[in-house]
Amino acid sequence: MKPIERLRKLNTIENLWLYILLILKEGPHYGWEMPKLIEKKFGFKPGRITPYRVLYQLAFQGLVQGRIERKKKDLSDHPKGRRRVKRSKNFLRENFKKNERMKRKKNKEKK
Q1: Per-residue pLDDT tens digits for 33-50
Q2: Considering the entire predicted model, what is its pTM?
Q3: What are the structural domains of the chain?
Q4: Exposed, middle or buried by CB within 10 Å (0-12, 13-18, 19+), for 38?
């Protein structure tokens, strides 16, 4: 696997929980909607089963909450999940800032 392919996989499929929480932040959805919503909103297609496995883990960790409505489980975000998304965004933002600082420093050294 090429480095860019690995980076893409690590930041999409391997971190599906983040995309699911971002979708649920917009409003409640059913589990079966996740693959299509992820593809539509973020441009990649997860497997059909993977989102269910991720949702199960998110519910187990208390990051999403569900309610049964007409024999279907309606899922929505949870304050704990919103905090996790915020921390993740901060982590990514800090990494990009560090990368930019390193790039500027390297360009200064060349001059």
Answers
A1: 999 999 999 999 998 899
A2: 0.71
A3: 3-110 (1.10.10.10)
A4: buried
